[in-house]
Design brief:
- It is a single chain.
- About 25% of the residues lie in helices and about 40% in strands.
- By secondary structure, it is α/β, with parallel strands linked by helices.
- The protein has one domain: Cytidine Deaminase, domain 2 (3-Layer(aba) Sandwich), CATH 3.40.140.10.
- The protein starts with a strand and ends with a strand.
- The structure holds zinc ion.
- The site of zinc ion (ZN) has 5 residues, from strand 4.
Amino acid sequence: MLISLSNLNRVKAHAKAAYPEECCGLLIGCYEEERGIRRNIVRYVAPCANRWFGDRTQGFEIPAYQRYDIEMTAKELGLSVVGAYHSHTLHGAFPSADDCDSMAIYQTMLIVAVKMGVVQEARAYCKDVNREIFEERIEFCF
Ligand SMILES: [Zn+2]
């Protein structure tokens, strides 16, 4: 996946601000395909409220109305939702079983690990058409 450093920094700042709760948001952009390999290109990050009813240090839920509004705005820009991001405050930047279940095919899941309020690392994952999850390389653009 391709993202600008400033957008990745926005995600990290959101993760830090939300700590000890998990933050969440959507990734807006488009994709390119080369020799059957699809790559998501993130143009905007849209921070969302974590409305999970459980312990928000261990989970997140993007409210449906917010997702809808963001999807509509993306569409007006000729873009679409290409993924989502959230933070982990107790575990590393690796997808949990729930994360794996919730991932949609071809969508990027960007996970930021925060430990003791300090952002540790960001990793991206994608689910392929065979429902297998692989780590995506994070590449930077301006
Ligand atoms: Zn997670």
